[in-house]
Design a protein that fits this description.
With 461 residues, this protein is of the alpha+beta class. It has four domains: 55 residues, no CATH class; 200 residues, Alpha-Beta Complex (3-hydroxy-3-methylglutaryl-coenzyme A Reductase, Chain A, domain 2); 114 residues, Alpha-Beta Plaits (2-Layer Sandwich); 55 residues. The protein contains 16 helices and ten strands. The strands form three sheets. The protein has a four-stranded antiparallel sheet. The chain is globular, with a radius of gyration of 28 Å. It starts with 10 loop residues before the first helix and ends in a 10-residue tail after the last helix. The chain binds (R)-mevalonate.
């Protein structure tokens, strides 16, 4: 039972004093309802509160993840079974709000289940970060300074890197890049990391900020610098979410005749049309964007379910898709002789320890469901799900079109909007099984059903 008191003697003052941050959660909710939902504040506050977790400890945990939390925003958590990846079977957790995504991933997984499954391989797991700084002077001297400083830089962050070093990771390279074409006197200290099973954002940023401080301090007393050169100006120190060397490839392959008939197409026609569709995405940025969006439907859902950072994953993937100067498809398909091959290569900087992966109870369960994989195996799984998703989407597009598969879920969502009961739903599913679903056609159907319950359904069209 939750109590929310909307009346407070200094409420108006509270709206102005920017002190919302200091309120308790019920106070925040009361403040919000009173000032932004003026026509029905009690009802709104009650609705927000109805999504609080009944377990107080669990709720405290969720509140602690972010700031100014007033409630929880639910997302559907589904599973896609039957994934064979590198000869192991997985039931993959997927958190996503878009209908048909889990169904498409499952259908892609099932299709390849009997055709050798998915294969995946990580080529490298390097993460990157930069200290961006300005220094005016002879670049040769700056290179000399960094060479002199390199061992000291490594030693200076030993307290931060000790644990990671013990796990076999840490800093793998420190390079100096001079880029006067961007800014006069602009340099980057480019640092490469192995963060083992962690995504490693905090670790990387801590190291970089410490490096930045050391650079400034050491420049001030470096013997080879004159007075002017002792002034090294840090612009910023931050990891890069572009990790082209944290790369995984997933692929499926089979004899063309094993593909079987797809809709009206025989296996060969299907394979050719499929490859053509992918070639369009390889060359046309408009199609590539939608094509890649389909891939991220699958990847993001697993990224979210496992408590990883989907903004980082997407940002990186889209930069990678444009690495050759033009935005293009992340997946590729080919027919060689009698063999069909479809593959996806994508950078995925994810972790299985640290961050939300061990805080969010369902992220922990997702990892357990996947057999507590290491980061490399999780990359295999995510890339395979992205490929399955992409395969299912393109297969639908070149055969039936996607609306057919989407319509049942779409219809369900519209029926939920009209608060349809079980009988109305059953009637609607039967009626629309061979018709185009639109918001207005469903509304018309429901209205007719409610106003004239005895009218035969056949008369509604
Ligand atoms: C819809 O969310 C994703 C698709 O548009 C992807 C695609 O077109 O390849 C179906």
């Amino acid at each position: 039972m939750f109590f929310i008191f909307l009346v407070s003697n200094n409420e108006d003052q509270r709206q102005n004093d920017c002190g919302v941050f200091k309120f308790s959660k019920p106070e925040k909710l009361a403040w919000l309802a009173k000032h932004f939902f003026t026509s029905n504040p009690m009802e709104v506050a009650r609705e927000f509160a109805s999504f609080w977790h009944t377990n107080v400890e669990a709720q405290r945990l969720f509140d602690g993840i972010s700031e100014n939390t007033i409630t929880n925003f639910y997302m559907p958590y589904g599973v896609a079974p039957n994934f064979i990846i590198n000869n192991l079977i997985y039931c993959v957790p997927m958190v996503i709000e878009e209908s048909s995504v889990v169904a498409a991933a499952s259908s892609g997984a099932k299709f390849w289940y009997t055709r050798g499954g998915f294969h995946a391989e990580v080529s490298s797991m390097t993460k990157l970060g930069h200290v961006h700084f300005i220094w005016e002077g002879d670049p040769i001297k700056m290179y000399g300074f960094i060479n002199y400083l390199r061992p000291y830089l490594m030693d200076s962050v030993r307290p931060i890197t000790a644990n990671m070093d013990e796990r076999g990771g840490g800093i793998t390279q420190i390079e100096l890049l001079y880029m006067p074409e961007i800014e006069s006197g602009y340099y980057q200290l480019k640092v490469s990391f192995n963060t083992c099973n962690a995504m490693g954002a905090n670790f990387i940023n801590s190291v970089l900020e410490s490096f930045a401080q050391t650079l400034v301090q050491e420049a001030e007393c470096y013997d080879d610098f004159d007075e002017r050169e002792r002034d090294l100006q840090i612009i910023m120190a931050i990891l890069s979410n572009y990790t082209p060397d944290c790369l995984v490839k997933a692929w499926v392959t089979c004899d063309i005749d094993q593909l079987g008939c797809c809709g009206d197409l025989n296996a060969y026609e299907f394979a050719e049309k499929f490859v053509r569709a992918v070639r369009i995405a390889e060359n046309d940025p408009y199609r590539a964007t939608t094509h890649n969006k389909g891939i991220y439907n699958g990847i993001d859902a697993v990224v979210i379910a496992t408590g990883n950072d989907f903004r980082a994953i997407e940002a990186c993937g889209h930069t990678y898709a444009a690495r050759n100067g033009k935005y293009a498809s992340l997946s590729h398909a080919e027919i060689k002789g009698n063999t069909f091959r479809f593959e996806l290569e994508v950078p995925l900087a994810v972790g299985t320890i640290g961050g939300l992966t061990k805080i969010h109870p369902l992220a922990k369960r997702s990892l357990e469901l996947l057999g507590n994989p290491d980061a490399e195996t999780l990359m295999h799984i995510m890339a395979s799900v992205g490929l399955a998703q992409n395969f299912a989407a393109v297969r639908s597009l070149v055969t039936t079109g996607i609306q057919k598969g989407h319509m049942k879920m779409h219809l369900n969502n519209i029926l939920s909007h009209f608060e349809a009961n079980e009988v109305e739903r059953a009637n609607a599913l039967s009626y629309f099984s061979d018709k185009v679903v639109s918001f207005s056609s469903v509304r018309q159907f429901i209205e007719q059903l409610r106003n004239f319950p005895n009218t035969p359904i056949i008369a509604l069209g």
